[in-house]
Amino acid sequence: MPAEKTVDSPPHRRTQAERVAESDTRMLQAAMGLVATRGYAQTTLEAIGTESGYSRGLVSHRWGTKDKLLEALVDRVLEDFRVGLLERLRGLTGLDALFCEIDCYLEGMDDPPLSSRAFFVLMLESIGPAPQIREHFARFSKKWQASLARTIAKGQQLGSIRADVKPADEARLLIATLRGLRTQSMLDPASSDIARDIAALKATLTQRLAP
């Protein structure tokens, strides 16, 4: 009895939206690598096109300017971080929520991923050679500070954080500390011990904020 013939399903033909999403991702990944290794000034639309396998014209068509592309890169990095953070924050309040923020921001910084290096290069250069993208980081900082302040205020309402501390001030200090530790770990990786620093920061916060 002859074997039945199988009919192969036709290969999936990607939609225009899928092709655009793939090319966007490749160009943003290329920009990320260039920023992390060369900095803002040496990251050009032409270099991004070459690195990603596309033309400078396509990069320019999608974002218009290098600054707009780099803003999109920062937004992509922040969105990936936000998604992971919200998943881990689920059900946490007060100091536990603040500790979760610390873990998510600092874990792995002894060997920071490419996205982290690119993000910090751009943030530091926004107060130097690239002031035109500074406002983008300033807006993010305000949102982050407001979010942390809400977490602290909620902890106060629940009685797990001292009632006499000022949420906005504590949020600003925590952000400054986190950024300082992360920057230091990249400046001097040989002496960095993020696990130790996380434990020390949590102990200090407990002394400052616990009732």
A few lines on this structure:
By secondary structure, the chain is an all-alpha fold. It contains 9 helices and no strands.
Produce the secondary structure layout:
Blueprint: H1 16-38, H2 45-52, H3 56-63, H4 66-89, H5 94-106, H6 114-125, H7 134-158, H8 167-187, H9 194-209
Q: How far is the N terminus from the C terminus? A: 82 Å
**Count of helical segments?**
9
Instruction: Name the beta content range.
Output: under 5%
Number of strands: 0
Portion in helices: over 70%
Q: Sheet bearing the most strands, described?
A: none
Corresponding CATH superfamily of the domain at 66-209: Tetracycline Repressor, domain 2
Gyration radius (Cα, Å) is 22 Å
Structural class: mainly alpha
Offer a few descriptive terms.
HTH_TetR; transcription regulation; transcription; BetI_C; Tetracycline Repressor, domain 2; elongated; mainly alpha; single chain
